[in-house]
Write a structure and sequence with these properties.
Its cofactor is Zn(2+). Its EC number is 3.4.11.-. InterPro entries: Aminopeptidase_N-like_N, Aminopeptidase_N-like_N_sf, ERAP1-like_C_dom, M1_APN-typ, Peptidase_M1, Peptidase_M1_aminopeptidases, Peptidase_M1_dom, Peptidase_M4/M1_CTD_sf. The chain has about 775 residues and is of the alpha+beta class. Among the domains are: about 170 residues, tricorn interacting facor f3 domain (Immunoglobulin-like, Sandwich), CATH 2.60.40; about 140 residues, Neutral Protease, domain 2 (Orthogonal Bundle); about 90 residues, Immunoglobulin-like, CATH 2.60.40; about 110 residues. It has 25 helices and 29 strands. The strands form 8 sheets. An 8-stranded mixed beta sheet has the order 5-4-8-2-1-11-14-13, with no helix packed on it. It has a 5-stranded mixed beta sheet with strand order 16-17-18-20-19, with helices on one face.
Amino acid sequence: MKINLYDIFVEFDFKELAYKGVETIDLETERDLELDSSGLTISKVESNGLDLDFEVHDDKVKIRTGKLKGKLTVHFSGKVRDSLVGIYRAPYDGTHMISTQFESSHAREFIPCVDHPAFKAKFKLKIGVNKGLQVISNMPVMNVKDSDGKVIYEFQETPPMSTYLLYVGIGKFEEFKIENKPEIIVATVPGKISKAKLPGELARDFIKTYEEYFGIKYQLPKVHLIAVPEFAFGAMENWGAITFRETALLADERSGFSNVRRVAEVVAHELAHQWFGDLVTMKWWNDLWLNESFATFMSYKIIDMLRPNWHMWGEFLLDETAGALLKDSIPTTHPIEATVNTPQEVEQIFDDISYGKGASILRMIESYIGKDEFKKGISSYLKRYSYSNAEGRDLWASLEETSGKPVSKIMPAWILNEGYPVVKVEVNDDTIKLTQERFGLLPVPDKTYPIPITIEVNGKRKDVMMEDKHLEIKVGEKVDSIKVNLDKAGFYRVLYNELAPVLATKLTAEEQWGLINDYFAFLLAGKISKEEYISLVKKLINAESHLPVLELADQLSFLYAINAEKYGNIAIEFHSTQVNKWKGREDEIGRRTFSILAINLSKMDPEFASSLSEQFRNYELLDGDLKSAVAVAYAVSKGSKALDELLHNYRSSKFDEEKVRILNAILSMKSPYTVVNVLSMVFTGEMKKQDIIRSIQYSLFYPSVREAVWEWIKLHAKKVAEIYGGTGIFGRVMADVIPLLGVGREEEIERFFKENQIKGAEKGIQQGLEILKAVSRIA
């Protein structure tokens, strides 16, 4: 079967949130046609002037076409949903816009179609709406005309693309345009366009750099960057019409570096998809990682090329590699190239493995074959499979062809197998003995991996491929200094039999991060003692780089939260030391690092919180990062007395950036009653549905609050999961929430989720329970 073109006309009733449509499909089939259709009413199907018999069953429309080469017309109607997937209503300020989110299998909720990534087709779209409304889609508007009290927007025909990349947005928009090839348009609902200039200019620079890197021009005449008021994901790469949460797109010079960097990373990620995912698409969802890993990897690479002072590869370790190493160290993991039998299953693998691990493996392979060879291989791959579909093996073949190195031999071991190794390093005079085994926080089946080992001994670099369990290296002189996994480019951990020769080397910021990240994992896994871990922390307590500092801040604030009596002294000592080092820094990274340290310390040290909270009187004059820290300090030190004032700020804020900042501050309070009441604002409409999951995460620092939040979750878990129905988001966030939420109530939390199964969240919940077992050992 082949689909050539969908010619679609849809007429909307914006107020009633309903629509009716007619689509003519140009196709070729040897047998009766089966279309995907979910929640739609099919009233008539015809071809060549004849009505065809059809039946609707299990989200399918089976049409008795027999062998057919030509056009088929389907009449249908549907509803705009009050959800976050398919075609849905995104409310704001007492009104709404209509938006779509079709990945992975929700285009069938808008039109009858063959909703499969390999069945690419052209789309010719006409949308009828009430006068005064605008419509955005993948291509530029070709014609606008009045018809029977409606306005009909007709769009240029798309190139061949997968159904999940189709986009329709309806509402009232303001637009910021940059005359460019392609034209760049940032679209917002009214009143938000003041924060559009920065992301528009970033997009212009990213597109130009991607075109140079890939050797392929951006293929459409324009690209819309659309801020959607209610959005489940961070963003979605619809070809030519990319959608974003407002916080992932809108920023200006006062937003703070944390927000600006996040916007840059998300914009760069989605624009990378315009080539890797849209122009060339995976054949099936088992290769989802081809889309997501590559876009993740390229977003950091492209920003690093344009903003080297942002130290993006350090951010990559914090944002991507860390989560992937954690989630891939438990029994409930999956290979990067996962087995996916149905589109519904793919929702649960939009996770740290498909994004972070895949991207980390790409970084490791680039380090192995060289940056120029990697670039040539990627360009060759994209040119070969443009407007088509490809598999992982096609990418490896291109990289092997350009580099001359055995990429196709190495990659399957990392892509098709779950887990990763820990390399144990034993130094004995002039001999280095390396031993590998699969790393696990809990017992996992052992595996052997082909590891591109990078090692520096006595200041001299060596590169070796470790393919067996053991490898012995004769140095020819006494080993005085050693470090393995240079710049933490390899996706493996390193456990030394003694740390003195390691600490005798000059460790880069990435290597310091790798050392402390590895040793925290060894603490969780029971491979080192609490005393050994704290000894290493004290050796790095005066670290200069933000990278190890932020990693230690994350670890120690977590340890404080699970057991303040056991870990409080070292956590407060570290944060107090580092806050003084970073206070007053004017550079972007310095301000952000101080903010994170100050937020953590405010929750641990009432005196510090009280002192910092004094700046709240000048809140509106502060930098965005400092605002975040001061708001938390104010909320913690004033408690419920500050609630009315903070809620007023929350309700009166125009931008989500500020709403989220204030929300996080309120959720930092020690008052269980206050926190759960604020969480319940999601049911009254005062909190956006998109924010409830992250709000739960942010509310778990204090044990007494955790207890109240747990009772709240027991009451509302299924209701919250339904908000994100069909996305897998609830499960992914539970994987991060349960390891802290469950401390001290391990059996109860496991029993609850066993007795209250939440469809689509099973994998994430199980991951959380497994990590909880490791955390409970050290609590």
